[in-house]
């Protein structure tokens, strides 16, 4: 091969003319043209870009295949690709659904079944907002394929209360002020409920002193609770209330509520002539 041919091959590889149609499309969508595109390609091998393009396009196609909510003004939904039938129970109710084989359980719950209590935070297994229980064990629904739940029992935050009666963990979260914005709370509560079963089963954690001892009904210390709940992030920092709530439910020992709602009378009394409300330290108005 002469020097000119070599230079031509190099130039054509550098400006992307050897890329596949999908890769070209991806670069166009990313707004990478001319010099910027050449710089980008200089930093990426075609193989890496190919994998990246494949994953991004597969994801786009999977998202595009989601059905529209009733009455939503959206473009017509393309037919499901890679469709599989799944029969599972969600909060005790049997559901037979046809889903894309790549769909996450989180998307099935929120987009197909309309159970939006389960939250999507990071969508990559880092925050715990999407925690639900599958056959009684906590899982990150963003990392669980819906198709893998065939024949299983899924419990979400909506399935914990019995009618008007809250699950003891839900009541304890309220009592101990275990949330602020509430976004992480469904995942925190599902995680906490499953955690109690893990303790009953005697499953060790990273901070359990003797991992060989098969103690049933492990008594959850604060350190144990913090470690076992460490996969559930709360950006509001409601951790002290969360730990207190779990401790109370596990011990069965009722502890005093540290705050109370102010009565109407107290609010009226607290109103000063300037119209400002003076609130005592532990009151919520
Ligand atoms: S949304 Fe699943 S871990 Fe963050
Ligand atoms: S209550 Fe806001 S993120 Fe936890």
Secondary-structure topology with pairs:
Layout (H helix, E strand, L loop, with lengths): L2 H12 L6 H9 L4 H10 L2 H19 L18 E8 L2 E8 L4 H8 L18 E4 L2 E4 L12 E3 L12 H8 L9 H17 L20 H7 L10 H13 L8 E2 L2 H7 L12 E2 L1
Parallel strand pairs: 1-5, 6-7
Antiparallel strand pairs: 1-2, 3-4, 3-5
Helix pairs in contact: 6-9
The structure holds FE2/S2 (inorganic) cluster (2 copies).
Quick summary of this structure?
With 285 residues, this protein is an alpha/beta fold. It is built from 10 helices and 7 strands.
Describe this structure in words.
The protein has 3 domains: 62 residues, no CATH class; 85 residues, Beta-grasp domain (Ubiquitin-like (UB roll), Roll); 93 residues, [2Fe-2S]-binding domain (DNA polymerase, domain 1, Orthogonal Bundle), CATH 1.10.150.120. It is built from 10 helices and 7 strands. The protein is globular and about 75 Å long. About 6% of the residues have low confidence. The structure holds FE2/S2 (inorganic) cluster (2 copies). The site of one FE2/S2 (inorganic) cluster has 11 residues, from loops.
Which CATH-level-2 architecture of the largest domain? Orthogonal Bundle
Low-confidence stretches: 6-16, 45-50
Bound molecules: FE2/S2 (inorganic) cluster
Q: Biggest sheet: strands side by side, in what order?
A: 2-1-5-3-4
Shape: globular
Query: For the terminal residues, how far apart are their CA atoms?
Result: 82 Å
Average pLDDT number: 81
Query: What about the largest sheet?
Result: 5 strands, mixed
Could you give me the name of the CATH homologous superfamily of the largest domain?
[2Fe-2S]-binding domain
Gyration radius, in Å: 26 Å
């Amino acid at each position: 091969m002469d020097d000119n041919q070599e230079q031509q091959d190099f130039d054509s590889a550098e400006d992307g003319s050897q890329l596949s149609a999908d890769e070209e499309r991806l670069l166009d969508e990313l707004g990478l043209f001319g010099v910027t595109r050449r710089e980008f390609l200089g930093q990426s091998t075609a193989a890496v870009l190919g994998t990246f393009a494949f994953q991004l396009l597969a994801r786009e196609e999977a998202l595009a295949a989601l059905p529209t909510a009733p009455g939503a003004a959206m473009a017509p939904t393309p037919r499901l690709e890679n469709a599989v039938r799944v029969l599972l129970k969600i909060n005790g109710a049997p559901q037979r659904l046809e889903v894309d084989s790549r769909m996450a359980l989180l998307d099935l719950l929120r987009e197909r079944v309309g159970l939006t209590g389960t939250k999507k935070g990071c969508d990559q297994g880092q925050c715990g907002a999407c925690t639900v229980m599958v056959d009684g064990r906590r899982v990150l629904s963003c990392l669980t394929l819906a198709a893998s739940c065939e024949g299983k029992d899924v419990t979400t935050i909506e399935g914990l209360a019995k009618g008007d009666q809250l699950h003891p963990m839900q009541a304890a979260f309220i009592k101990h002020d275990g949330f602020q914005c509430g976004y992480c709370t469904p995942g925190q509560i599902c995680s906490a409920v499953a955690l109690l079963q893990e303790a009953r089963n005697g499953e060790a954690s990273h901070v359990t002193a003797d991992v060989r001892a098969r103690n049933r009904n492990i008594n959850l210390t604060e350190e144990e609770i913090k470690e076992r709940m460490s996969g559930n992030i709360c950006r509001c920092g409601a951790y002290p209330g969360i730990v207190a709530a779990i401790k109370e439910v596990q011990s069965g020992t009722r502890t005093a509520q540290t705050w109370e709602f102010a009565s109407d009378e107290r609010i009226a009394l607290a109103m000063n002539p300037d119209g400002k409300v003076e609130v005592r330290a532990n009151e919520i108005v």
